[in-house]
Amino acid sequence: MEPWILGLTGGIGSGKTAVLDRFASLGVHVVDADQAARWVVEPGRPALLQIAERFGSGILLTDGALDRKGLRERIFDNPADRQWLEQLLHPLIRAEIARHLALAESPYAIMASPLLIESGQYRQVNRVLVVDVPVSLQVARTVARDQVSEEQVRAILKAQASREARLQHADDVLVNDRDLSWLGAEVERLHRFYLTLRGGQV
């Protein structure tokens, strides 16, 4: 039977990676949209050539890889460039994700994306799991992890879908505000439940 797809999302600092790692340790096939976004612009891939043609070879690092920070700065205030880049990359990222999901041999597979709701990717999955934490905890965790200011974190939060928007699309919510052993037990509980589902539905 073909695996059904669980979409996993959560705001910055919610602990998505820790949750994904636990699912993966239980043998669940995991595909990370952020990784797919990196794969499609690796040296030798056609998308990287097109980006260099549009923005000039200065957009590449000395080893030939994409200067992601430089590109972000270039498109930040330029809607036309950002739109061009999205039109180039989004179909490639979708195809890359689909290719990796097709390799799944577990009863269900996870597509993890921080922009699952904003990008409309939630329409491609059978069920949505939101990793949720109070905003104050998101801010504290991200400041500690990334060594950035609270203002920067709050600016990122504003750019992401609101907690309310994410929770509206959620079939399941994992509130990740305790320690890792508790989190592991919650993931195992969800995993046992997911194994009983056909096509992601009860």
From TrEMBL:
One of its GO terms (molecular function) is ATP binding. GO terms for biological process: coenzyme A biosynthetic process. It is found in: Cytoplasm. Keywords: ATP-binding, Coenzyme A biosynthesis, Cytoplasm, Kinase, Nucleotide-binding, Transferase. Its main location: cytoplasm. PANTHER family: BIFUNCTIONAL COENZYME A SYNTHASE-RELATED, DEPHOSPHO-COA KINASE-RELATED. HAMAP family: Dephospho_CoA_kinase (MF_00376). Catalyzes the phosphorylation of the 3'-hydroxyl group of dephosphocoenzyme A to form coenzyme A. Belongs to the CoaE family. This is Dephospho-CoA kinase.
